[in-house]
Amino acid sequence: MRAPLDTAAVSAALRPHGESVMLPAAAYTSDEVYAWELRHMFAGGWTCVGRADELTAGPVTHRALAVGDIGVLLTFSDGALWAFANVCRHRGHELLPLGGAAQRRAVACPYHGWGYRLDGTLLSAPGFDTPPEGLSLVELPVTTWLPADPPGAVRGLPALVRGQLGPRRPLGGRLDGPARRR
After folding, report:
1. Among 1, 5, 33, 115, which is disulfide-ready with 123 (CB 3.0 to 4.6 Å)?
2. pLDDT digits (tens, 9 = 90+) for 158-170
3. CA 14 to CA 123: how far, in whole Å?
4. In the chain, how many domains are there?
5. Is the separation of the CB atoms in 75 and 170 below 8 Å?
6. Residue range(s) defining the domain that contains residue 25
7. Residue 152 and residue 125: Cα distance in Å, rounded?
8. What is the mean pLDDT of residues 40-58?
9. What is the share, in percent, of the chain residues with pLDDT greater than 70?
10. Are 107 and 138 part of one and the same domain?
């Protein structure tokens, strides 16, 4: 999907140096353009959300943040990192307020009390004898990435989250392990 900008105005901005003009004012001030950027530039690709040691500082077992316009719930347990859409599978309620952090053994929905393990699986659902099948949290791709710096130069690993809820696209190995100098 194209950005909600006048095509001719964008083309004029892409002319060679000396012939080009600035982008139209809407590129900098439009709420519609901002919403498009959140969805297509930030939520549609990998986003560094911080250093892993800072994300788990506190200590915390889960933290809520935004990747573009997608609410993301990061959970941490025994050195493992998971990312989920920050909504309960029961009624779509936000599980943890944006910017919030908690230290609990499970994630609890504040609306009807559904509980999820830190790996996203449904733990409990009030009103059910056994939790319904197939209603784990919606998992998002997440990884930690070590820059190609000398050992000891980096105290924490950046955590990267891909906020797209659609099918996963292949990464081509770029972030699937330590970065390599070329």
Report:
1. 115
2. 555 555 444 434 4
3. 53
4. 2
5. no
6. 7-42
7. 45
8. 77
9. 78
10. yes
The amino acid at residue 124 is S
Q: What share of the chain is helix, strand, coil (3-state, %, to 5)?
A: 15, 25, 60
Distance CA 179, CA 164 (A): 23
| Spatial distance between the Cα atoms of 86 and 70, rounded to a whole number of angstroms | 8
Do 53 and 15 belong together in one domain?
Answer: no
DSSP 169: P
What is the C-alpha to C-alpha distance for residues 24 and 13, in angstroms, rounded to an integer? 8
CA distance 174 to 106: 32
Q: How far apart are alpha carbons 72 and 86 in whole angstroms? A: 5
Q: Going by C-beta distance under 8 Å and a sequence separation of 6 or more, which residues neighbour residue 130?
A: none
The token pair at 108 is 């609890």
Residues 89 and 11 in one domain: no
Q: Could you tell me whether strands 101-102 and 62-67 are parallel, antiparallel, or unpaired per DSSP bridges?
A: antiparallel
Q: Residues with Cβ < 8 Å from 4, sequence gap 6 or more?
A: 26, 30, 32, 33, 36
Where residue 40 falls (left for φ over 0; alpha for ψ -120 to 50; beta otherwise) is alpha
